[in-house]
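It is worth pausing here to work through a concrete case rather than discussing structure prediction in the abstract. The textbook approach is simple: state the sequence, then state the predicted structure, then interpret. We follow exactly that order.
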Amino acid sequence: MSISGQNITSVAVGWHLYELTGSAWALGFVGAVELTPVFLLMVVTGNVIDRFPRRNVAMIAHAVLACASLGLAAIAWVDGPVGAIFAMLGLVGVSRAFIQPSMGTIMPQLLKPAQFVNANAWISSISQIAAISAPALGGFIVAFGGGAKWAFIVSALSQVAVIGLLSFIRAVPPPPSDPESRRTPAQIFAGFGFIRQNPIFLAAITLDLFAVLLGGAVALLPIYAKDILHVGPEGLGWLRAAPSAGAVTMTLIVTRLPPWQRPGWVMMCAVLGFGLATIGFGLSTNFALSMICLYASGVCDAVSVVVRTTLEQVITPDHLRGRVSAINFVFIGFSNEFGMFESGMTAALFGPVISVVAGGVGTILVVAVVALVWPQLHRIGPLHTLRPKDVQPALS
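Step two, the predicted structure:
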């Protein structure tokens, strides 16, 4: 429900802004306006999530998002100014800063470590389905509902539904971390310290970060659909859906697999496969082959996401989950946006084929570097057997 609502808002905002301005720059600023609060509030977000019941934080964040969606609906209804739209998008960014880290840290309070991989696979699968279907639903509402305002209202209702569903979860108080009411700087920035002191998690973040940053072929799909594969907008839709289809397939398979005995090795092979699939897509001039490569990239990306997410959950002490999750969300989120910018920039300078192929080669090189710098990653045992690392009292 949460992801569907956010995707509906994204489609409606893009359409409404372009109708008002006719400017590609306005569309580009949407991501910047939404991501800036996420970056600026990173430390605040993590500390709030670690000091208050995470369910309550998530409910408040979704309430803020619902209000922002209603604000966008009101602006669209009265043909309000573009500046007001961006003000509401800033509020969307504030809510997003708290939603993902708080929602991601609720699950470890509800399940046993042995259930994490299976649960993360289901969550990833459902998220991909929402990412595929919600934009289409948003476009349908905009097209047949007389503009973007009804799409914003539907998005707001979806966030209200999230709040209702969260109310069924028992509010688990965070573990006591500090007898004093005021935190020291070391405690406030403890998430950074934990990641820096934990080479396994640092290696996993590095793999995911640079794979997304360098393998941003999705941003160039319109160029491939029009100028290289010559399949038009219909083909573009199929190309956009292929990675998600691969991810859904793989995550459903993961739910039936026994625990990986060497999950670090599995993650490195998955990122390596992602790089190879990216190179294959970059070089392909055949639509069927391009679809296969994009599908394979989604398969590999799904494995990487499940391993990294589960690894974060099993090795992070509960009193640090919010601070670690907030940092992780910022880095992965910014790498998606910056990866699209990097792909567009290199494509403008060197052409789309060189841009995509170079990104795939860079991903493979990152795997090699991580294997050399952090050999601990591919030596770890089954994820459910790992336990939170002992940290210094200063990190509590």
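Step three, interpretation. The radius of gyration is 21 Å. The chain has a mean pLDDT of 83.
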